[in-house]
Sequence to fold (511 residues):
Amino acid sequence: MKQKTGLEGAMELTQKFTFNPKEGIDNPALVITDDPERESGPTPRLCQMRREKGESFGFYLRLELGLRGHVVREVEPWSVAERSGLRDGDRLLEVNQDFVDTEEHWKVVRKIQASGQQVSLLVLGGGEYEQALAEGRDLLALAREHRGEATTRPRLCHVTREHGAGLGFTVSAVDGRKGKFCVTTMAGGPAEKAGVRSGDRLLWINGASASDLTHSALSKMIRTCVGHVTVLVIESASEQSYARRGVSIFPAMAEIHNLPHRPRTLHLVQCPAGYGFLLRQEKMPSGRIVHALREVEPDSPAERAGMREGDQLLAVNGEAAEGLEHEDVVSRVRSSGRRVAFTAIDSQGGDYYYQLGLSPLLFYEDDTPEKEKTVPPPALAAPPAGPPHEAHSELPLPRICQLERGPKGFGFRLSCVQDEPGTCIGQVAAGGPGQRAGLRAGDVVVEVNGQSVAEEPLEEVARRMKEAGPRLDVLVVDRRGYGALKQSGTPVAASLAHATQVRKGPNNSFI
Fold:
């Protein structure tokens, strides 16, 4: 038998796939071809992460000099972040469907940390992000386009039982399927008033996923709840849309309705006798460890700021205190100077969120009027003239960072900015001595081991540091504070500073 040539075989193969204008394309290779227009331009990626208790997501989120946006760095190999598709250099657009590109960095970090074991990040690759900026693209619109379908967000609703009406809702299985439940509400009842609607899908109740419950177990849970229940619900069409796109739904994505026990922000201004309270680390009956605010003195700065006996400290100057050791919290308070902002919640509220498995900071927004954040109470206002640390308490204070040389040096690099005075910290190695001591990229170096270097060139500053031996004390101040202090005529000196020994800088957070 005559063997076919390669060309003849190819021609015969080609003839098997035909195109008929009336019937359409009959070539599978053509059918699956993507529309080139849909792939043109920057395309966001959704990275969904779920970690185990005690596990980190495994990446750093930074602000970097010369770069706009929140930058993902040092994604750890085999980490939750790497498995989700997160890459070094990605820029963050959304956290749990909230647009964060223009949000303050510490708020973005807190949002991720408060999300708990699960978080959803929408990112753009570094090159695509710069391309989008160069083309004048609206990043908010780009993030919305990524979702495509019009969906409503899930709702986290707190329903309080009423006499004669109960909770005001019932649940039924959807098509008899386990873990799929539909809600029916009583018109004008407690559930409806709390934001639950008839036809909603029930996803989560009092910290338990509905998908893990049978109808009888769920009904018993609702029937035996004492006075209230907290549920996560979503419209049926939106649930189907999330499922089609493979997007997980969890409480951190939700709009909140009627949640009790909201955290409060307390703005304290120190008086000569101190703040007037005691900070203690305590173990609750549930076993969790909290930072308790105790022995609040009458008419003290703490009491005037609204602190109550037994309040639990959640954050210091916006940075989460949950999970920190007592000494770390004390260090952050001391390094804050004469002013500090606490986020706190009463003990009953702390227990409520703990039982739900949620952080009280998850949906918290500081609604303190701006004037209350910046102007101290009249009785504590600094006089017009006086020591520099009083007259200029509004300015960022210098910091003394104490470093011990490691196997790879002090863990930072120096740089300078064209047409701006001073030598500054260019890069800080993650986990190195510099980062642990509190150095931040962009800090201006004022003194090295007590010697002023503010007017010296970078080379001379580097020489002094190399000759420092195993220990190095560096007086630094962020560039805004440096410029403001210089303009006001205040000497930038160690007498203004507070020693700081922290594990991370505010612009470089391990998550």
